[in-house]
Design brief:
The complex is a heterodimer of chains A (about 525) and B (about 150). Chain A is built from 22 helices and two strands. By secondary structure, chain A is mainly α. Chain A starts with a helix and ends in a 10-residue tail after the last helix. By secondary structure, chain B is mainly α. Chain B is built from five helices and no strands. Chain B is flat. Classes of the chains: A mainly alpha (about 525), B mainly alpha (about 150).
């Protein structure tokens, strides 16, 4: 078992080290890193902008690059948080709490150094977890019947929509809306045009690029225009030699790093709990464990090491359910799965055996990418800091241009640009009404497969819904889903009761300390 | 209870329900079938009904929700910025259709830039020129995109 895994990994390195794959991995992490630093730009927007480009690429290169953007952006996001107190990317919001005080004390460079180290430790552990855990999961999943897959998808959708940002009710609503958008187009069985509103271009369904760029590009720009503050980057000069932490600091941060890694890799296994939750949990538990809690929030190096390690462990672990079960844990993973589907690759447990190049190549590229990121970030830190000073007024018109031309390039059709604009305006309306549109993508990607499996399960059981409870695997998933919803309702009711008693809103303690910035959410 | 929240939830729930009703109406134009033999309309019908229910719950939650649920996106709509962004994409489509890639890129970049209150004329021109150069060199020349630079 161990030997096969290592053997496959060796094969993966062979794939990832092919010159063009190496190049795409580099392009991905570089682009991700830049976007991560730029305030007001989100990971989802970045991946969506490069998505059309991947249609002309081989699947392996495409996935390596898109994944590289995702974890590359995490490195960039930390820089933004520590130096400027701007939580541009949600997982790094807690890093601000102790990272920025360190910057004010003139130790910003050390904090960045510790961050890079923690990121690498966290990511490495996440990768190892994926190597050993994904094949085990696949072993289980190969025995799933259509009813089991349905229940698993249901669980994934519920977890992804209720544990994410905002009210659970609205999250579920967005998921259902996503499912609806996902089945627009020809019915796979009869070929009837469903929900196309008579528009012939919609016969093949809504284009995932248009959906992603509308929701995470145009809608975000509509929200952020004239609302992103110009940044003051004076006093953020970071020199390379300051980045090396002293022995004492390293000794202090090391245990926190390991605890953070552990929390992050555990969070990765629970569907719906992405890097953001992992980093919050890691920070909170680090604070609770510490003997001098008052140090937290005033530049405690552990408060930087733990959440950063957790974020990166969880980011890598996020790939586990996506690539072993075909169930994306969050919208970034949904986008990656969408890219695979466009390439004609069916996600699911058979992916690892049918396309070992993609799976093992991806894992090997994680390591290569993380090493590239360290090599890039340490000497180039000065350049990243300068990037922070690019004003939003130049960013969004440029991004808008890349969106227009990128969407056009998908099918050389300007109609798709209109579709993107319409989705963007719709997305902005949803944002104004307090919805977070990210779960739409989750529903969109799973919609057609959910319908297909549901139809098949019902056909096989002759319309008997009991099949979902009679199959032990399906029953387990449904049980967890019920638990999840019950827990949410209880938490909600308790908060209401408490709020009623104290007649005041109580935000979770960690979140309350967080600086808020009108930055792009993921 | 907060009046702003209640009104927002009312609109949010109303929108969901309206979409749900639209989906149900559409689904009924197709054959529904039975649970064991689902036709094209079955799945959309379920989803539409689900969305109507979720809309109703959202409206209800607006009447009972407490202040713990903060209104975070409550800044006023930036009309100038929004209008510029929407106009910019429309300009790209129209000019791209009738005038070619270069004028489409240049003018849509100018329009988008006009949306930011701190943008200068010089800054906008430099930006538009840079993006036009990218369009010509990267997309048209290097990537061979079938999009004529100028249409006559």
């Amino acid at each position: 078992m161990l030997a096969t895994a290592l053997n496959d990994l060796w094969h993966g390195f062979g794939v990832a080290f092919q010159p063009h794959n190496l190049m795409w991995c580099f392009v991905g992490v570089l682009f991700g890193n830049i976007v991560g630093v730029l305030p007001g730009m989100g990971v989802l927007a970045a991946i969506s902008v490069l998505l059309p480009l991947t249609f002309a690429m081989k699947p392996v290169g495409a996935i390596l690059m898109l994944a590289g953007i995702y974890y590359g952006a995490q490195y960039g996001g930390a820089i933004c948080s520590i130096l400027l107190n701007l939580p541009c990317h949600p997982p790094h919001a807690v890093t601000c709490l102790d990272g920025y005080p360190l910057t004010k004390q003139g130790k910003g460079a050390t904090a960045l150094g510790i961050t890079m180290l923690s990121s690498f430790v966290g990511a490495s552990f996440g990768i190892v977890e994926m190597i050993f855990f994904a094949p085990v999961l696949v072993g289980f999943a190969l025995h799933f019947g259509p009813e089991d897959i349905c229940s698993l998808m249901l669980l994934g959708l519920l977890a992804g929509s209720t544990l994410a940002k905002g009210s659970p009710l609205k999250g579920v609503s967005m998921t259902v809306l996503g499912l609806i958008l996902g089945i627009v187009g020809s019915d796979p069985n009869s070929g009837e045009q469903r929900l196309t509103m008579g528009i012939p271009q919609l016969a093949d369904g809504i284009e995932i690029v248009a959906l992603a760029l509308g929701l995470f590009g145009i809608a975000e720009f509509l929200k952020s225009v004239n609302n992103v503050p110009t940044l003051d980057v004076r006093g953020t000069n970071v020199r390379l030699r300051d980045m090396r932490p002293s022995g004492a600091e390293l000794k202090r941060a090391a245990p926190a790093m390991l605890r953070g890694t552990l929390i992050g890799s555990l969070c990765a296994l629970i569907p719906g709990t992405g890097p953001t939750i992992a980093s919050f949990v890691a920070y909170a538990s680090e604070k609770n464990l510490s003997r001098n809690k008052e140090m937290f929030g005033r530049g405690e190096i552990r408060g930087v090491a733990a959440p950063e390690a957790a974020t990166h462990a969880s980011v890598q672990g996020d790939f586990i359910p996506t690539f072993s079960l075909g169930i994306p844990g969050d919208s970034v993973m949904a986008l990656l799965l969408g890219a695979l589907i466009v390439q004609g690759i069916q996600p699911g447990p058979q992916l690892i055996t049918e396309h070992p190049d993609i799976f093992w190549g991806l894992i090997a590229s994680f390591w290569i990418g993380n090493i590239l990121l360290i090599l890039m970030n340490v000497p180039l830190i000065g350049i990243w800091v300068k990037l922070l000073a690019i004003p939003y007024r130049y960013l969004y018109p440029s991004a808008l241009f890349f969106i227009c031309i990128g969407v056009y390039g998908v099918s050389n059709d300007l109609f798709l640009v209109c579709e993107t604009l319409a989705i963007g305006i719709g997305g902005y309306v949803l944002l104004r009404l307090g919805f977070h549109p990210a779960p739409i993508l989750l529903g969109f990607v799973l919609g057609p497969r959910f319908e297909e499996n549901f139809r098949r399960a019902m056909l096989l059981s002759r319309g008997d819904l009991n099949v979902f409870i009679e199959s032990p695997i399906s029953a387990t998933f449904l049980g967890i889903a019920v638990l999840l919803v019950t827990a949410q309702v209880i938490v909600h009711l308790r908060r209401r009761l408490r709020a009623g008693r104290t007649s005041g809103a109580e935000a979770p303690p960690v979140l309350a300390d967080c600086p808020t910035a009108p930055a792009t959410r993921v | 209870m907060n009046g702003v929240i209640a009104r927002r939830e009312l609109m949010a729930g109303g929108l969901l329900a309206a979409i749900g009703i639209g989906v149900v109406v559409e689904a009924r134009r197709h054959a529904i079938g039975t649970l064991s033999e689902m036709q094209a309309g079955y799945f959309p019908l379920i989803l539409g009904i689900l969305l109507i229910g979720l809309g109703a719950l959202t409206v209800l939650s607006g009447f009972t929700s407490d202040a713990a649920e903060t209104v975070e996106d409550s800044h006023p709509i930036d009309l100038r910025g929004c209008a510029a962004i929407i106009a910019s994409v429309l300009a790209f489509v129209l000019l791209g259709e009738y005038a070619g890639l270069l004028p489409a890129t240049f003018l849509s970049a100018l329009i988008a830039a006009a949306g930011d209150r701190k943008m200068t004329v010089k800054g906008a021109l430099v930006l538009a020129a840079t993006l036009s150069a990218v369009a010509a060199l990267l997309f048209s020349y290097a990537l061979n995109m079938p999009f004529p630079l100028v249409r006559w």
